[in-house]
Each structure stands twice: as C-alpha cells, then as structure tokens.
Design goal:
1 helix; elongated
C-alpha cells in the first residue's frame, strides 16, 4: 500500500479556518456570558410555562 503524499494547505485556507474558529469561540463565549447573566430569568420563564422539565 502506497503512503499518501501530504498536501499543501494555502495560507488563505489556514487563515479562513482560524477566523472561523475565532468566530465560533466568540459566539460561544457570548452565549455563555448571556446565560450567566440571565439564567434566573430564563429558568423562571421556562418554569412558569411548564417547559423547565429538561433542566
């Protein structure tokens, strides 16, 4: 079986992947910060509507 030759990855593709990873991390961080800030209100609202069974 022949070994697979490594392929070159362009700098642009690497930069786009890094930018996408940073955007995903920033979005997740903002979502977590929002949850930490508004968790009591979210859980109260869900409990009042009967949707808090999953928490």
């Amino acid at each position: 079986m022949k070994p697979i030759a490594p392929t070159r990855i362009s700098v642009r593709a690497c930069a786009m992947a890094a930018l996408g990873a940073c955007a995903l991390a920033a979005t997740a961080g903002l979502a977590f910060a929002g949850w930490m800030e508004h968790a009591p209100a979210i859980l109260t609202t869900l409990a009042q509507q009967g949707l808090a069974w999953c928490f």
